[in-house]
């Protein structure tokens, strides 16, 4: 679905007259392949290059060096831009900047309308998109009156209505409360599992990355770690070096193991921890974890 080869991105710094006075390397020799139907999580502290990478996949930026190919289309070829942006939809952090319609259903239909999809099919797509993210009951509402989680699901529905093969979500939960975060992650997982859409989730909430098929950790524009969530999170020390946490349960299990308990590395959920501790029934430990 996506092939990134030796990608470099330099942001140019200009003086008041517009002359280039320096540059900053935000992406530094990144190689990354994403297969159709995968759920990928990208982690990394602020400024590590995650958003810059996301913008390359969506052809919003042009490589300084290297290539990005999305579904066989090179992002450097201008003829492909429209098709790439339709196939690789993007959801950003702030839902308020993405919603333009006065009514939910109108907002969701905006993308396909812009693409020239016939009216009857637009409504089919709107219905389908609202159903997938479970907001059919909100279709006549004004987006302004919705919660953050609902608004973000409207943005996702708007992207789905364009029938993308891949959706890149750049910290879609950063501005949401815990229940809004759950709504959005649930929607992203359904898109992947039920609709078979390739998902690239950029997040700084480690708990959201445990559902991914593969996790990439960025640091100073490079890919510093990659593997399954279990592989990546079991290296608690390396994650700390990269100024990242691991999921709370993983951290607790790691501390218990360091204290001498016989536990496997990379425990990701409270249920796994309870099982490893031999606590089969619902217990206080499980509830607390
Ligand atoms: P992240 O999303 O991981 O926080 P970004 O991709 O936004 O990281 O930024 C990577 C680096 O590039 C940072 O050092 C940031 O300051 C710099 N950067 C991002 N956008 C621009 C820009 N438009 N112009 C100049 N530098 C930028
Ligand atoms: Mg960012």
Can you describe this structure?
- By secondary structure, the protein is α/β, with parallel strands linked by helices.
- The chain has two domains: 37-63 and 82-228, P-loop containing nucleotide triphosphate hydrolases (Rossmann fold); 247-289, no CATH class.
- It is 37% helix and 23% strand.
- It has helices at 50-57, 81-87, 104-114, 119-132, 148-160, 178-193, 206-209, 229-234, 236-241, 248-258, 270-276, 284-288, and strands spanning 2-14, 20-34, 39-43, 65-70, 73-74, 88-91, 166-170, 198-202, 214-219, 222-227.
- A six-stranded mixed beta sheet has the order 6-7-8-3-9-10, sandwiched between helices. A four-stranded antiparallel beta sheet has the order 2-1-4-5.
- A hairpin with a 2-residue loop joins strand 4 and strand 5 (73-74).
- The longest helix is centred in the middle third of the chain and has 16 residues, at 178-193.
- The structure holds adenosine-5'-diphosphate and magnesium ion.
What can be said about the biggest beta sheet?
6 strands, mixed
Number of domains: 2
The CATH class of the largest domain is identified as Alpha Beta
Q: Low-confidence parts, pLDDT < 50 over ≥5 residues?
A: none
Structural class estimated from helices and strands: alpha/beta
- Large-scale geometry: globular
Looking at CATH, the homologous superfamily of the largest domain is P-loop containing nucleotide triphosphate hydrolases
User: What's the number of extended β-strand segments?
Assistant: 10
Q: Which fold name is given in CATH as the topology of the largest domain?
A: Rossmann fold
Terminal Cα separation, in Å? 37 Å
Strand ordering within the main sheet: 6-7-8-3-9-10
